[in-house]
Amino acid sequence: MIKITDLEKIYRTEEVETVALNKLSLEVKEGEFVAIMGPSGCGKSTLLNIVGLLDDPDSGSFKFNGIEVAKFNERKRADLRKRNIGFVFQSFNLIDELTVFENVELPLIYTGVKSSERKKRVEEVLDKMQIMHRRNHYPQQLSGGQQQRVAVARAVVNRPKLILADEPTGNLDSHNGNEVMQLLTDLNEQGTTIVMVTHSEHDARYSHRIVRMLDGQTVLENIMV
Amino acid sequence: MIKNYFKTAWRNLWKNKTFSLINIAGLAIGMAACLLILQYVSFKLSFDQFNKNAADLYRVYNDRYQNGKLIQHGTITYSAIGKAMQDDYPEVINHARVEPFGTVIIINNEKKIGEQEVLAVDNSFLTMFTYPLIAGDVNSALKDPYTLILSQRSAEKIFDVKDGNFSKVVGRSVLMGTDSIPYKVTGVCKNVPENSHLQFDILAAYSTLYAGNNSNPYKEADYDFTDSDFWHYIQLKHGTDYKKLQAKFPAFSQRHFQGTKVSGTDEKFYLQPLSKAHLYSDFEYEIGRTGSATTVWGLLIIAALIIVIAWVNYINLATAKSMERAKEVGVRKVSGATKQQLIRQFLSESFMINVIALVLALLMVTLVRRGFNNMIKYDLSLSYLFQKGLSGYNITIALIALIITGILVSGFYPAFVLSSFKPILVLKGKYTTSTKGIILRKALVVGQFAITVALIIGSFVVYRQIRFVNAQDLGMNISQMLIIRPPELTNWDSTFINRENTFTEELKKIPHVQGAATSWNLPGGETGRSFNVRRVDQDSTVRFTMRHSGISVGYLGLYKIKLLAGRDYTYTDFNPNFGNLHNIILNESAIKLLGFKSPQDAIGKTIIRWVKKWEIIGVINDYHQKSLRYPVEPTMLFPAYSTNSPISVKVQPKDLPATISQIKKKYDAFFPGNLFDYSFLDDRFNAQYANDRLFGKVFAIFSGFAIFIACLGLLGLSLFATAQRTKEIGVRKVLGASVTNIVALLSKDFIKLVVIAFLIASPVAWYIMHNWLQDFAYRINISWWIFFGAGLLAVLIALFTISFQAIRAAVANPVKSLRTE
User: Fold this and answer.
1) Strands, E assignment, B206-299
2) DSSP codes of every residue in A45-66
3) In chain B, which residue's Cα lies nearest the Cα of A84?
4) Quick check: A213 and A22 in contact, CB under 8 A?
5) What is the CB neighbour count within 10 angstroms for residue B104?
6) Which of B36, B77, B167, B319 has the fewest CB atoms within 10 Å, counting from its CB?
C-alpha cells in the first residue's frame, strides 16, 4: 500500500538546515499494523506528514497504492487524502464548536456525501464506538477516553484504507488507552491498514511490526509475534 | 457545506463574546459613521442634478481686471452678456437673466407676508431649469412685466390655500414691498428642492425691471455693457465642449468691450457647469446656496479612513485570533478540506460578520439621523446615497464596491493565513507565529494610529482656527448689537433722514439702549464696489477699485470704529439727494491705495469717483467688514441713508424682552405699516463661519469615532497579547517583577507602535491642514505643541486602552497561570 524509497525532507531557515528525513525507505503492506518509534526529533512527525499527504517530500519516491504521489499538488493530495486516510491524534483535536455528531460528520461533508447518507453512517459509527448517547454533546463535555473514541469514529467514518495514529493514547490513562488500542486492533482485523507513531512500548506491542527511527532514517525493524 | 460554515462561524462568535463584540462593534460604528458622512456627501454632490438639462446648463462668470490686477471675481456681470453670447455663438441655444430682489414683503390686501425670497428671471428660465409648474403655462408665465410665479409654500401662505388647488390663485394680484404697481400671479411651482443652489419663494418676470408701467425703468437691465449687476445662465447644444466655447470668449470680450473702453475694466468671461455651482464657488456676489468642495472631499476622505480603520481592526483581530482557530483548521484539513474550501469558509465568516455589522450600522444611522440632521441643518436620509450625484452614480457604485472589497480583503487575509497552517504541526501544538504575520499586524496598528493621530491634529487645527477667527479683533465691536429690519415699506422722501434720526434719538431714551445707527450693509454683508476712483490730481486714466457703503450719523461711534484723522459725520454732511453729497470718510487701506502719505495727509484732499468729486473729511482704521477668510479691502463710506438700511441698536442684555418691546413700539410709531423683526448681529456675523464650524464639529465627532474604533482594535490586540504571554508574566512575577514592571512590559510594545504612527502622521497632517488654512486671509500658525498634544493624547488613549488588560494580567495570581501549562 505504501512504498517509500529514498525519501528526503529538509527544513531550512535562514541560519540552519535540518535534515528531517534522510534517504528513508519504508514499505507498508495492505492490512498491516505498523508502529513507528524513536526519540523526539527523529523525523517521525515529518514522515507521518508525508505519508498522510499533508506535506510533500523534497526528493525520493512515495507510491500510494501503486501511484506515485510525491509530486502531487495540494488539491490532488487533498482529494486522495480524504478518500483514503483517517487520522487519530494524541490530543484528540476535536473542534470545540461542533457537537460529537458534527465532528464525526465533517469528513463526510468534505467528501460530498449526501445528508441522509451522512446521518446513517455517522450513527452507525457512533454506535460502534458506543458513544451514540453522547451525539449532541460538545467535546469539552466528554472525558478524555470518550473524546478519543469520537476522534477514532471521525477517522473511520469515511471508511479509509489507512489510519494514521499519532500517539493515540498519549493523553489517556491506561484503562482508556487500552480501550483505544483495542479499537484500533479491531479495525485492523477488519482490514484497515494502520500506521501508528508511539513512545509507548506497551502500545507498540499491539502492532505487527515496529519500525525504529533515528536521525531521519529507519534503523531497526522488529517483527512482532 | 455552507450550512456547516455558518454554523461554525456562529458558534465561534458566541464562544468569544468579547472578541466578537469588539469586532462587530468596531465594524458597525465604522460603517455607520461612513454611511452618515456618505449620505451628506452624496447630498452635497447631488446639487442641481434634478434639472433635466443639468449637463447642458452653465452659469457665466466674469473676472474684471484693473491695472493688471483682478479686482472682481464674480458670477455678477452685464445684462447683455447672455443674449450677446446666444447671438454670437450657435452652440448657445438659450439664456436666462437672473436678478435677485432679495427678501421682500408681499402684500395681499391687508395681509403682509415677510421673508419672501424673490428672483427676477426671464421666461426662458422655466424651460431651461426644472422647477415644474403646478399651475400656469411654462411658455408664457413670465413673459409680461409685473407677473410672478409663487412656490407652493408661498401660495399657501399668501392665499391660505389649504386644499391643494393652486389654479385658483392664478390671476390674483399682490403688491411687492413699496412698489405701487400690482403683480399678477401667473403660475405656481413646486417648492424648490433642498439641493438646488438657487433658492427662491417667488419668481418675478425679469422684464419688470425695465418695461411695463415701471415709473423708474432700469434701462441697463435689458441689454447693456456698462453696468455689471446681473446674473446669467446659458444652455449649450447637447454635447458641446464648453471649454472650446470658452476659448472664444477673449474675442467676444474684445468685440463688445473694446479693451477697457466700454466698462473701464478688462473683462474676461468663463463658464461654470451648473453641477459645480454649489460646491465650487469662490465667487463674490454669489446668489446661490454655496458649499465647500474641500469640506465635502475632506469628509469623504475621513469616511474612507474610518471604514479602513474598522476593517484593519477586523483583519488584526481575526489574525490574532487565528492561533486559536489553528487547531480547527488542522482538523478540517486532515478531514479532507482543501485550501479553497477553508478560504471559502473564512470568507463566509467575514461576510457574516460584515453583514451583521452593516445591519447594526443601518440601525444606528436611523437612530442618530435626527440629531445628525439637526447638526448639519439639512433633512437627509440614506436615500441620498442613491441619488444621481456630481459624477453620476459614482458614489453609489463606489460604496458598493467599497463594501465588497472590504469584505473580500478583510476576509481574505485571515482566510489565507489560516488556511496555510501546517496541520500536523498545529495539531501537535507546535504552532509558532510567523514573523511576517507579526510585522503585518504591527504595520496595521501603526497605520490605524497614524490615521487617528492625523485626525486628532486636524481637529486641533480646525478648532484653533475657528477660535482664532472668533477672538480676532475685527477693528469694530459687534457685540450686543440688535439688528432691526429696515423700514422698507416706508417710501423714501426728503423727510426720511430726519425721521430716522429722530427715531434713533428716541431709541436712546429707552433704558438699556446705548445707541443706534443705520447703514446700507451690516458687518458680514457684501458691500458694493466702485471701479473708478482716483485722486483729483491724478490722470483720468488712473483707476482704483474700492468697496463702498452708506452710513448714518453715529455709526462709527456705535461700532467703535476708530477715527485715525479728521472727523466723524455730523447732521450737516447728509442730504436726501445723493448728488448733493460731497464729504467722504475712507479707511486706511483706501488712503494707501490712493497714495497718500498718512491719514492726516489725506484730510481735506479731493478724490473723484466716476465724475463726481468728494472731499476726504475722515480716515478710519481698517475693520473687517467680512469674515477673516477675506482680507480687508479699501473702503469708502458715504454719508447716506436708505429705507433699505437695517438699524443697529446697541443694547445691554438686561431685560431684553422689555427693551425689544419698547423698541417695537417706537418702530411701529415711526414707520407704520412695516413688519417689525429683529436679530442679533454676532449670530449673523458668525454665520459666515457656519461651514467651517460644521466642518470642525463633524471633523471632531468623526475623529472621535476613528479613535474609538482604533482603541477597540488595540483593546482586542492587547487582550490577545496578554493571553499569549500569561506564562511569561507568571514566571516574571515568581521571579520578583512588580505589577508596574509587568504593566510597563506589556504597554511598551504598543506605545512604540503609537510613536511610530505619530512620526508618520505628523508631516502628512501638517501638509493637509496647512493647505486648508490657506483659504483664510487671517490664520493661525500650526505650532509644535499641536503635534505634541496630539501625540501625547494618542499615547494616553493607547495606554488607557491597554492598561485594562495589562493590569488584570499583572495582578493575576502567577500560580494559576503557570498551572495552565
Assistant:
1) 230-236, 266-273
2) HHHHHHHTTSS--SEEEEEETT
3) B336
4) no
5) 22
6) B167
Q: What is the pLDDT of residues B20-45, one digit of tens each?
A: 888 888 889 888 888 888 888 888 88
Cell numbers linked to A90: 494524541
Q: So what's the pLDDT on residue B430?
A: 55
Q: How many angstroms separate the CA atoms of A70 and A7, rounded?
A: 9
> Which strands sit side by side in the sheet containing A67-68, from one edge to the other?
A17-28, A2-12, A59-64, A67-68
The whole-angstrom separation of Cα B668 and Cα B660 is: 12
> What tens digit of pLDDT does each residue of B410-457 get?
777 777 777 777 766 666 555 555 566 667 778 888 888 898 888 889
Quickly list DSSP for A96-114. TTS-HHHHHHHHHHHTT--
Per-residue pLDDT at B820: 45
Cβ-based burial of B362 (10 A; exposed 0-12, middle 13-18, buried ≥19): middle
- Asked if B424 and A166 come within 8 Å (Cβ–Cβ), the reply is yes
ipTM: 0.71
- Maximum Cα interatomic distance, chain A, rounded to a whole number of Å: 53
CB contact under 8 A, A81 and B334: yes
The C-alpha atoms of residue B459 and residue B453 are separated, in whole angstroms, by 10
Rounded Cα gap, residues B383 and B397, in angstroms? 14
Nearest to B319 by CA among B224, B248, B418, B406: B418
What is the pTM for the complete model shown?
A: 0.76
Assigned C-alpha cell, B668: 411701529
Read off the C-alpha cell for B350. Answer: 467575514
Q: Supply angle C-alpha B237, B239, B243, rounded to 5.
A: 90
Type of residue at B411: G
A199-212: buried (b, 16+ CB within 10 Å) or exposed (e) per residue?
Answer: ebeebbebbbbbbb
Instruction: Provide, as residue numbers in chain B, all residues whose Cβ is less than 8 Å from the Cβ of A78.
Output: 333, 336-339
Q: How far is CA B748 from the centre of its chain?
A: 42
The DSSP bridge partners found for residue B505 are none
Question: Could you say which of A54, A74, A91 has the minimum Cβ distance to residue B334?
Answer: A54
Burial of B424 (0-12, 13-18, 19+ CB in 10 A): buried
- B8 interaction partners in chain A (CB closer than 8 Å): 95, 97-98
